[in-house]
Design brief:
Blueprint lengths: L4 H20 L8 H6 L6 H12 L2 H14 L14 H15 L5 H9 L3 H36 L8 H53 L2 H7 L22 H10 L4 H17 L6 H8 L3 H33 L1 H7 L8 H9 L4 H23 L1 H13 L5 H23 L5 H25 L5 H21 L2 H9 L5 H6 L4 H22 L6 H11 L6 H10 L9 H26 L3 H21 L4 H4 L16
Helix pairs in contact: 1-8, 1-16, 3-8, 3-12, 3-13, 3-16, 4-7, 4-13, 5-11, 5-12, 5-13, 5-26, 6-7, 7-8, 7-15, 7-16, 7-17, 7-18, 7-19, 7-20, 8-13, 8-16, 8-18, 11-19, 12-13, 13-15, 13-26, 17-18, 19-20, 19-23, 20-23, 24-25, 26-27
């Protein structure tokens, strides 16, 4: 496969522009660590929302979405709940506001705000740093594999005779280009370049959807799909039979562990609710929340993500999937079991998108990688600088020293992520481990911390330690081969056998969660509660609902005018409406691209109704939830040293 000279010129021009613009704005980051980590809390909420969406519109994830839509059809709308995508709804409704009220810089710094500064809080502080760095490196690995596979399909130079090494070298070069401006520029460089990159990517995404609509007739789509492919709803099983069209797709469904789709859905929903209620993981998503001007804008920023991310992204995903269905199935059948479904996206792009637009699209997807990579890089240094160096090594370090250490920290994390990514083979395996195993270890401690006053630093620490250790060990102690053997055992109850068909990491999730819960409650109940003054300060500033009765009584004894948060029922209603709203935003562009207009109009009607509902029950309520006296004034500009 070779690109035209026009496409190569567009790609090189884009890469050069991204680096130059990112480097040009980097002088804003050199002022102090707040500017480097959070952009000085002066960036508008809608800009941060677009930036956050751009960081999520990554190449590796989009490659997965295309192959999921190709194989599972509209039922694939539910599979991203493994991340879970609806965590943005929890953030939009209340958690972004609660988090931003703290005024901290990192998730680890928030631990001190919640638990104080005793030994348990210090242990919790350390474990959050460890989790954050493990998570950042895991996302590097995920992005490394995705961009390597993508680049080898398009970029014309063979850097190595070995295909795997060739992909890794391309990933190394592209990560180096992005790091050139991100490491120096911090949040300002990340956000400005992400907004530029997202605009380019959205244009390319919608253009691909239109090309697919013009090239593939509804009749051609229906001839290429099995019965039930275009139905978003499902039963206990997928109900999809590819045996007469693409037999390898049936095998892929079995390998994915998704044949019992109803069971998979229930697992994804229950896991997703727990992980979402825990709040954002200490990565770039949390950093965007903490970078907003105030709590009210933090909630608005999270709402923007669902709109600007899903509609253009799924125009591209649907367009590439139906182009592949209509024109590429013959090639897939020739490859048989050797087919790598994760490469449908680059193969479909190359074959069916015309020169010029292909260059724009490839540049846009490279932009998606750069956005995700840039956001991930920028999320790591605060934990190393603020939460390790400043806290334990040099509390009096100057701002200039800390900015320099941030640059060194970014480079170190990049090198570690690349070294691990070099030896990983599958994007899907990395995603499964991150979303099911690693976040299983994160969920218990981080759910309880918001909603129960008695939970203390020791409980948080032991819950996280047991969760992370079990997340790292269980998938290896319970490999897919053992899972398959248990599933084949005729003495196993039917429900257990069905459960064993799920992906290994997802099967491990309940065990990881249970182990972590034991750590949480043992650590909490065997040690003393946190200092009342710390708990009262946290409760008054954050104003969470939940099991805070004893602390509420003490706060009201000091301040009879203090009112508890009355919004639990309202928030739960808005979350339910918001998940329907978000899911309809995903399904609507897919139905439009495959030209099932009646279902597209139903999805659009649901979007309109849920949007109006949220306007009255959520948006108009923000002023009451986060009154003006909580809204900080715009920070003064900080002079450069």
């Amino acid at each position: 496969m070779t690109l035209s000279l026009l496409d190569i010129a567009i790609i090189l021009a884009f890469l050069a522009t991204s680096v130059i613009v990112g480097y040009w704005v980097s002088h804003r980051a050199a002022r102090d660590t707040k500017s480097y980590f959070l952009g000085g809390n002066v960036l508008p909420w809608w800009v941060l929302g677009v930036s956050n969406a751009s960081g999520m519109f990554d190449v590796a994830g989009t490659m997965l979405l295309v192959y999921w839509l190709f194989i599972y059809g509209l039922k694939s709308v539910w599979i991203p709940w493994m991340w879970p995508v609806f965590n943005q709804i929890f953030l939009m409704v209340y958690l972004s506001g609660w988090l931003r009220r703290s005024g901290v810089t990192t998730g680890a710094e928030w631990i001190k705000f919640r638990f104080g500064d005793n030994k348990g809080a210090q242990l919790s502080h350390i474990i959050v740093v460890v989790f954050a760095l493990v998570g950042v490196i895991s996302f590097f690995t995920y992005g490394f594999k995705g961009i390597g596979k993508f680049a080898t399909e398009f970029l014309p130079w063979q850097l190595s005779g070995d295909p795997v090494t060739n992909a890794n070298l391309y990933a190394l070069i592209l990560m180096g280009l992005t790091a050139a401006y991100v490491v120096k520029g911090g949040m300002f460089s990340v956000v400005i370049t992400e907004v530029m990159q997202f605009c380019l990517l959205s244009i390319a995404a919608i253009a691909i959807g239109i090309i697919a609509m013009n090239k593939v007739s509804p009749e051609a789509v229906h001839a290429a799909i099995p019965a039930g492919w275009d139905n978003i709803f499902f039963g206990w099983q997928t109900g999809l039979d590819w045996s007469k069209l693409v037999p390898a797709a049936n095998q892929k469904i079995l390998e994915d562990g998704s044949s019992l789709f109803g069971l998979l859905f229930l697992m994804l929903l229950s896991k997703g609710i727990l992980v979402s209620a825990a709040g954002p993981a200490p990565n770039y998503d949390m950093q965007r929340v903490l970078s907003t001007r105030n709590a009210r804008e933090a909630c608005k920023m999270s709402a923007v993500v669902s709109v600007v991310l899903n509609v253009p992204r799924y125009f591209m995903v649907a367009g590439l999937a139906i182009l592949a269905l209509a024109f590429y199935t013959g090639d897939i059948n020739k490859m048989g079991a050797a087919m790598d479904f994760e490469k449908i996206l680059p193969d479909a792009l190359f074959k069916y998108v015309p020169p010029g637009l292909l260059g724009i699209t490839v540049a846009g997807l490279l932009a998606a990688f750069m956005s995700n990579f840039a956001a991930t890089v920028n999320a790591a240094p605060p934990y190393i600088v603020n939460d390790i160096y400043r806290r334990f090594i040099n509390p009096n370090a100057s701002e200039k020293t800390c900015v320099r250490l941030s640059i060194i920290s970014s480079l170190t994390i990049v090198v570690i992520g690349i070294c691990i990514g070099w030896f990983i083979t599958s994007i899907n395996n990395v995603v499964g481990w991150i979303t099911a195993a690693l976040w299983g270890g994160y969920a218990a401690s981080n759910v309880i911390k918001w909603y129960w006053w008695r939970f203390n630093g020791y409980g948080y620490f032991w819950g996280m330690v047991t969760g992370i250790v079990s997340a790292m060990l269980l998938p290896f102690m319970f490999p897919a081969e053992l899972q398959a053997a248990l599933h084949a055992n005729p003495d196993m109850p039917a429900l257990v056998r069905d459960f064993m068909t799920l992906p290994t990491a997802l099967v491990c999730f309940p065990v990881i969660l249970l182990v972590s819960l034991v750590g949480c409650f043992a650590g909490t109940l065997l040690t003393k509660p946190e200092d009342e003054e710390v708990l009262k300060a946290f409760y008054k500033k954050t104003r969470p609902w939940g099991f805070w009765g004893p602390i509420l009584k003490k706060v009201q004894a000091e301040d009879p005018s203090f009112k508890p948060n009355p919004d639990f029922v309202r928030d739960m209603f808005n979350i339910a409406v918001g998940i329907i709203w978000q899911t309809s935003l995903v399904a609507m562009p897919v139905y439009f691209v495959i030209r099932e207009y009646e279902r597209a109009e139903i999805a659009l009607a649901i979007v309109v109704v849920t949007s109006l509902t949220l306007f009255f029950t959520w948006f108009r309520h923000l002023d009451n939830a986060y009154p003006d006296h909580e809204i900080a004034k715009k920070p003064e500009a900080v002079p450069a040293e």
